[in-house]
Amino acid sequence: MSDTAQAPLVQVRGLKMHFPIHAGLFRRHVGDIKAVDDISLDIFESETLGLVGESGCGKSTAGRAIISLYTITDGSVEIDGVDLAQLDSNSLRAMRPKMQMIFQDPQASLNPRMSVASIIAEPLVEHMSLSSSERLARVYELMDAVGLNRAFAERFPHEFSGGQRQRIGIARALALNPKFIVCDEPIAALDVSIQAQVVNLLEDLQKQFGLTYLFISHDLSMVRHIADRVAVMYLGKIVELAPRDTLYSQPLHPYTQALLSAVPEPDPVSEKDRRHIILKGDVPSPANTPTGCNFCTRCPIAEDICRQIDPEFREITPGQFVACHFVGETTKSTGENTTGTIAQH
Amino acid sequence: MSDGAATVLDVKDLRTVFQTGQGEIHAVNSVSFDLKPGELLGVVGESGSGKSVTMMSLIGLLPSPPADIQGGHVNFDGLDLLNIDEDDLRAIRGARIGFIFQDPMTSLNPVFTIGFQLMEPLRMHMGLSKAAARKRAAELLDLVGIADPHKRLSDYPHQFSGGMRQRVMIAIALACDPKVLIADEPTTALDVTIQAQIIDLMKDLRRKLDMAIVWITHDLGVIAGIADRVIVMYGGQIVEHAPVEELFANPQHPYTRALLQTVPSIRGGRSDRLRVIDGQPPILLEAPSQCSFQARCSHAFDRCRRHDPARLTISPGHDVACFWDPATGEPRDE
User: Fold this and answer.
1) N or C: which end of chain B has fewer CB within 10 A?
2) Are strands B237-243 and B229-234 parallel, antiparallel or unpaired?
3) For residue B142, what are the domain limits?
4) Residue B38: CB partners within 8 Å, gap ≥ 6?
C-alpha cells in the first residue's frame, strides 16, 4: 500500500464484518448489517493510525475485528506476519499478548468486584506463569508506568476518578508487553482537562515501549494531535486515508471536508466568518446501504455516476488514498472558501 | 428589542446544597449572573462544575430533598422564582422558560407520539384546542426542519434519529414562545455533522424568534461560534465572565487560560505535547473558604489558600475571581 521499506506490523486486506439479520417465524436470514465493508489498511511499527468517523460508521467494529474479537466475515488481517484468520483457537490465544485493547468506558470495562492489583494481574495469570511475588512486582511496575500510586493497589475501581480508571485500563493493556494496542475512544468519557493527561500518557508509553496504536475516536482535533496517519470511515468503508498533515490541510473526499468543517473551533474571530459545510440528513442504516457510493445520499457534489458505481479506493497523491469519483485531475471542490452555500437548513 | 439596561433573568447569590449520606455537597456557591433579551449566554465548565445544577435550581427542577436551595434571588419578569408557589412556577416552566436537555434519547417519552408530546405544552399553557394545537405542532416541526411534519406527528420517538429527536426537543421547548431558553448541552450527545446542523438551526431560530438563550456546554469550540457572553464555572462558582471575543483573546483566570491551552485545534500550529491541568476537580464538601482552583493552579500563592477570591471587574463586562494578575504575573493588590 505504501512504498515504505519497513514492513507493516498490521496488514488488513478486504476486511468485512457483516452481522446477519434473522427475521420471521423460521428466523430466516433476511439481510446483513454491513458494519465493516471491505476495508484495507496498513499500520506500521511504532506509528499511530487514527480512525475517525461518526457513531455507527463501524470504526469500533473495525478495531475489534482487526484483533479478532469477532470472527470476520471475509478478508485477512496479518499481525506481525501471522494471518489471524488461519489460526485455530489455541494459536490465536498465543497471539493475544501481542495485541491488546483499551476500551472507551473505564467504568464498564473494569470489574467492580476486583481490586486494581487483580485487574492488572489478570492477563499475567492467564498468559504467563509467574510466581505471586513476581506478579505483584510486575503490577507495581505497571502502576508506576501509568502514574498510579502503588498504595492504591488493593482499592476497587469505584474509588477512582474517570481518568484514573482509564489509567488502570491502560496498565492492564500493557501487562503482557503488547506490540499493538487498539484504543477504542479511550478519552471520550473523560473531561477536557483529564483527556489531555491520558493522551500525554499514551504518547509517553508509546515512546517508552515502542507501541503501535490504532486510535479510534470521533474527536478530530485530538486525532490530529496524536495520530501520524488518519483514516476516515463512513458507513463501513474507509473513504480517505492520508498522512495527518495532508488530511487536515488538504482533505479530498467531500465527507472528510464536511466533517472537518463541522468541527467548531475555539476562536470566536475565525468562527464568525468560517463557512460550515452542513450535510443534510442522517447516516443511512448499514443494513440497507445505498447503491453506488455510500455517501451519495448526503454528498453535496453527488451525480448520477455516484448512485450507480461504488468508487474505487485509490492513491491520489503519495500516501493519500481516496474513494471518490471526482477526486483526481478534475477535482470538484466543496472547499470552505470556494463554492458558497451547499446546503442550508 | 434589546435595550442594554433591561434584563429578562437576574440571578443573585444562588446557593444550592445537596444533603447526602456522606454529608453536604455545596454544588452552587453564590452564583450571580443576568441575561438580557435576545442574547446568548454561554456557560462553560467541566462535569461537576455546577453548571447544570445552577440552571435546574433556578427553575425549581431539582427534587428537594436532597437538593436544598439555601439562598439567593432569581428575578424573572418581576417575579422571584425561588419564592413563588409551585403552581405559578409550573405556569412559567415550559411556557415562558423553555428547557432543552442533553440527551435526546431519554428525554422524550417512548410511549407517546411526538405529536402528543408537542401538543401537551400547547394545550396546558396556551389553552389551545386539540385541532389548533395539532396545527401549531406541525408548524413547530416544520420550523425545526423536519420534513413532512403532519405525518411525523403520529410517529413515536424511536422512529426518529438522534439529531431529529433533538430537533423535536427544541420544538417542544419553543412551543409556547418562551422568553428564555435554557439549553443544557444540547449537542453533546450528537455527532459533529449533526451538531453543526443543530447549531445552524439554533442560530437561525434565534434571529427569527428573538429569545434569550442560556447554552450550557463543555465545548469551547461550540461557545466560540454562538455565544455573545460567556461565564466559566469551576467548583460551583463563576470564575470568569466576559464577552466572547474578550474571553478568548484575553482570558484572565488561570483555569480559563489552561482550558484554552489544553484543547487541540484542527487548524493552525500543532504542539508536540498537550498542556495539562494536573489533578482533579474539587469535591465540595463545605462552602468555599479558599480558591477552589488553588490546588491545581500553577500561580497559587498564600492568599489563595486563605481567602476565596471575589469577582473583580477588570474591564467593562469582564470580571474574574482570582487574586493573580496575568498582565503583570504578580498577585493583584489586596
Assistant:
1) C
2) antiparallel
3) 101-175
4) B1, B2, B206, B210, B211, B212
Which among A191, A261, A265 is the nearest to B265, CB-wise?
A265
Does residue B245 belong to the interface with chain A, where contact is any CB pair within 8 Å?
Answer: yes
B225–A264 CB contact, under 8 Å: yes
Cross-chain Cβ contact B225/A220 below 8 Å? no
Q: What pLDDT is recorded for position B286?
A: 83
Record: contact A258-B201, CB cut-off 8 A: no
Task: Work out how many domains chain B is built from and give that number.
Answer: 2
* Entry pTM: 0.84
As a whole number of angstroms, the distance between CA B141 and CA B148 comes to 9
- Residues A226-265 pLDDT 10s: 999 999 999 999 999 999 999 999 999 999 999 999 888 8
To the nearest whole Å, the CA of A71 is away from the closest chain B CA by 29
Examine the pLDDT at A310 and tell me if it is beyond 70.
yes
Task: Tell me whether residues B248 and A344 touch, CB distance under 8 A.
Answer: no
Q: Are residues B201 and B129 in the same domain?
A: no
For chain A, how big is the Rg over CA atoms in Å? Answer: 21
Contacts of B205 in chain A (CB under 8 A): none
Residues B198 and B70 in one domain: yes
3-state secondary structure of A338: coil
Asked whether residue B118 falls in the same domain as residue B212, the answer is: no
Residues contacting residue B43 through CB under 8 Å, at least 6 positions apart: B51, B54, B55, B214, B215, B216, B217, B230, B231, B233
pLDDT number for residue A256: 94
- Cell numbers for B108: 422524550
Residue in B161, B271, B276 nearest the CB of A282: B161
Extract the C-alpha cell encoding B138.
406541525
Residue with cell 410511549: B111
Q: Among the three residues B158, B175, B192, which one is the final residue of a domain in this structure?
A: B175
Is residue B42 in a domain? yes
**Do B215 and B257 sit in the same domain of this protein?**
yes
B114-152 pLDDT tens trace:
999 999 889 988 888 999 999 999 988 888 888 888 888
Cβ atoms A94, A80 nearer than 8 A: no
Residue B261 and residue B165 in one domain: no
Cα atoms found within 13 Å of the Cα of residue B140, Cβ hemisphere only: 25
* Residues of B with Cβ-Cβ distance to A221 under 8 angstroms: 221, 263-266
Count of A-B CB contacts under 8 Å:
126
> Could you give the CA distance from residue B326 to residue B260 in angstroms, rounded to a whole number?
15
- CATH number assigned to the domain comprising residue B284: 3.40.50.300
Contact with chain A for residue B201, Cβ under 8 A: yes
Quote the pLDDT of residue A5. Answer: 55
Q: Are residues B133 and B92 in the same domain?
A: no
Q: Which ipTM did the prediction report?
A: 0.78
Give A119-144 pLDDT, tens digit per residue.
999 999 999 889 999 999 999 999 99
Residue B2 lies in a domain: no
Q: Under an 8 A CB cutoff, do A269 and B245 touch? A: yes
- What number is the average pLDDT over the span A218-233? 93
Could you read off the pLDDT of A58-78 as tens digits, one per residue?
899 999 999 999 999 999 999
The answer to whether residue B118 is domain-embedded is: yes
Nearest Cβ partner of A199 from B248, B258, B274?
Answer: B274
B159, B280: one domain? no
For A192, which of B46, B194, B280 is closest by C-beta distance?
A: B46
pLDDT higher than threshold 60 for residue A339: no
- From A92, A90, A61, A89, select the one nearest A79 (Cα to Cα): A92
Residues B90 and B111 in one domain: no
> Does some domain include residue B136?
yes
pLDDT under 70 in chain B at which residues? 1-5, 334
Using the Cβ of B238 and the Cβ atoms of chain A, whether some distance falls under 8 Å is answered with no
- B175, B207, B230: which is the final residue of a domain? B175
